[in-house]
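A quick aside before the break. I want you to see a complete sequence-to-structure record at least once, exactly as it would be stored in a machine-readable document. Don't worry about memorizing anything.
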Amino acid sequence: MTSSSLLPPPSPLPLAGCRVALGVTGSIAAFKAADLASTLRQAGAEVEVVMTPAATQFVTPLTFQSLTGRPVVVDMFAAVEPEAHVEVARRCNALLIAPASADCLANLAHGLTPDMVTLTALATTAPVLVAPAMDSQMWENQATQANVETLHRRGVAFVGPMPGRLASGRTGAGRMAEVQDVIGALRQVLGRNGDFAGRHVVVSAGGTQEPIDPVRFVGNHSTGKMGFAIAEAARDRGARVTIVTGPVALATPYGCERVDVTTVDAMLAALASATSASDALIMAAAPADFRPGSPAGQKIKKAPGQDELTLHLAKTTDILATLPGGVVRVGFAAETQNLARHARAKLSAKRIEFIVANDVTAPGSGFGTDTNQVTLFHRDGRVEELPLMSKYAVALAILDRVAALLKEL
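That is the input. The structure line, written in tokens, reads:
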């Protein structure tokens, strides 16, 4: 039986429909807030900027108005709508203060509202995320640390600051976190009460490299993008996420635990540890099916006149068939032909609830793409053909099915 998904296609934008109030305070890092505002918009968020008067000395309100398409509020007494001084706080889904100066942290901790940023923080019931930026001596001062501790107790979330070179020319903790980490932290804060809250999701990603000698290996073209998208989506829905990944050129999603491995045996060992008490395992990795039987201890040199090199390959361990852990288990099948037949064969051979199959030769569905078109083959015989979507949207669709299965347990 073949059917299309009964659920609406997930949004390809992780912050679609989210209203973010972006508070900008007086710090040299205020220029990063412009990039942050633009990136939030690109992620689908509706952004309203509130600024302190000091922040306008670094970046003009016009900059943010141009990036967000909305007026910027600096003066709480120059309202353009009734009760504007609290309306931003009422309608936002999250307040993000980036950068947050030491002065801002002190005002937040003591409930003072000398400007629109701190007033919005006091008036909102939405989650508050703070990205501090200041000189390391100010950050390490006992008064600042006491204020941070107070805010932590009240449920305010923090991202950064990071160590590095500061505006003063010194090196230390005080740099505002990078924009992508701030966005990741915001997504984590927004999803902390999601349908995966309290759940531990383990995701495998990337390919493996089975050594031929110290220089060469047997591998594949997997980039890990699908697995990392699943990890981000699970984090965004409240899960504690562990990624076990082969060698990939991808940054670790904010808030996720990462375990790097190289070979199938190492991936199996890492997954066995990670899934011992997990709620779900999503096996998006592409581990090698075969490895050289006897890897050379030194680089294999080409002899004069040699035209061929014969490798004797041995079968690797089937990770999913071997792993005992993971309550709800999902497999993947990357195929080039006979998609349904090969996917069903893998489904029956492994203890999984459903398998996500895709034809890697199809346009927009191969290795390294940002999109994917998959078919879900369920253990009960159901088949769902999903349209071409972003990998993040595919990840959400997979997690919808996992969440439904977890509810049945």
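Two observations worth writing down. Residues 391-408 form the longest helix (18 residues). The two ends are 25 Å apart (CA to CA). We'll return to this after the break.
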